[in-house]
Amino acid sequence: MTQTVVLSPLTRIEGHLAIHLETEEDSSSGQTIIKKAQCEGEMFRGLETILHGRDPLDAQQITQRICGVCPIAHGIASVMAQEMAFGIVPTRNGRIAQNLILAAEYLHSHILHFYHLAALDFVDITAILKYNGTDPTLVNLRNWAKNALDKNLAFPGAPFLPRPETDQYIKTDEANWRLIDSYVKALKIRTLAHEMAAVFGAKLPHSTSLVPTGVTGEVTIERVLACKSRLDQIKTFIHTVYLPDLFTAAAAFPQYWDIGKSHGNFLSYGVFRMEEKTGEALNNFLPSGAVIGGIYQPLDTSKIREFVEHSRYSSGSGLHPWQGTTQPEPQKGYSWIKAPRYDGQVMEVGPAARLMVLCLGPGNPEMKQDVQNALNAAGVPLEKINSVLGRHLARGLEAKWIADQCERWLDELEIGKPAAAEFALPEQGRGVGLTEAPRGALGHWLTIRNYKIERYQCIVPTTWNCSPRDNQGRPGAVEKALEGTVLQNPAEPIEAGRIVRSFDPCIACAVH
Fold it and tell me: N or C, which end of the chain is more exposed by having fewer CB within 10 Å?
């Protein structure tokens, strides 16, 4: 018998997402299996429309408001599009400072995702009630939880409770206590990451210092040291806490190497410029490319199209972002998210996609060896990156690589040299900014006429991952990853939550 399960709103993600599941009971095994899944972005925002007729230099400020978690990535994509349209390139200091700000956003976002969004799907938070040690943080947390439960409050223990009541959490108290302790420590590390971004970004979220060619502030020894002092603490946390915790969680749930498999096609625009250039073909720290059917191919953005057959838009379907428009039609489709496709294929974007492009394409040999060492330790092949655990592993390794690289960028800054260049606004122009937000491929397409923005189109990471079906009826990446999953208890489908959160959806971005 077919049943409908609705998760709305899906919590511990950014924005408003509803997951609609059709389940059936398998007659031979008696198991409940997801037969069909639909992702519904539940709101419309219209920031592309707001940009029409504005000064192009407003764009990096307005587009940062697409998101409060990954605003820097939008700011970087916007200034890159402007640089191409203006015919200018970043200064050396400007490029490196932008890399450092974006890197800090990555470190903040990956730690946020693992500890404060996804971990509560795996950690038994109620184990804190049995804590018998002397760590003052855990003692305080235990006493707070006991007090809240004893008072019979409406939601005692919030935001940790209520939760799906299942036996699918880590079994040992010691492991749970350690991860709960890391959860608390991660709050401070996220603060340090925001402070690190603010050294050259002026403030977070929504930096006021990003401009085409660089940043507005000067590069001083004080700023370099301020950035380094915070980076050192973040790096230590990643190496000694985050990665060990990640492997602890992975060892406790080995079945999740086989759960949450998307179509198996991956896309990355590449991120962190390593040269003073702008445009589509850049030398990036993490490379660009596409993996289709297990084969790497160089990035070709002419293959991108957006479809709206099942989206709440009356805009033309199957258009390249240079031609695309955004015209809402609330009665149509089942989601406010469009359906981008690359070379006609459904693509997954994000850390797992960046890792697959790196490993199957022209990636750094040392990073490839890191991936192989981690896979060997887990006893799984590279193909298992296409899974819930694969996405978590990709974030952990990426955090390590980026934190290590930040030290090199700090050494490369030239004290007193310009962090930006002067430029003139052209009467007309056209540019694209391609980068990677922590959640995946991010592109801004800009056209200027009469010194004003004539057209602005964004395709963001979660638009790729949480897309609805396209004109051919093919499910998006998250929809595909859900289908075929066995649910232990359809009334509390924790398996579905784990799959969706492994993509780290950002719906505010997706419905920009």
Answer: N
**Burial call 183-192: b when 16+ CB within 10 Å, e when fewer:** bebbeebbeb
DSSP label of 133: S
> What is the per-residue pLDDT for 1?
76
Beta bridge partners of 286: 271
Q: Is residue 159 pLDDT above 90, yes or no?
A: no
Residue 281: per-residue pLDDT = 86
Q: How far apart are CA 436 and CA 421, in angstroms?
A: 24
Residues 6 or more apart whose Cβ sits within 8 Å of residue 481: 260, 261, 262, 499, 503
Going by pLDDT thresholds of 50, 70 and 90, the confidence category of residue 29 is: confident
Q: Strand pairing partners for 295?
A: 292
Question: In sequence order, what E strands does 249-362 have?
Answer: 266-268, 271-273, 284-286, 289-292, 295-297, 304-307, 339-342
- Which tens digits make up the pLDDT trace of 77-120? 999 999 999 999 999 999 999 999 999 999 999 999 999 999 99
The answer to whether the CB of 299 falls within 8 A of the CB of 280 is yes
Task: Please state the separation of Cα 11 from the chain's center in Å.
Answer: 16
For the chain, how long is the longest CA-to-CA vector?
Answer: 72
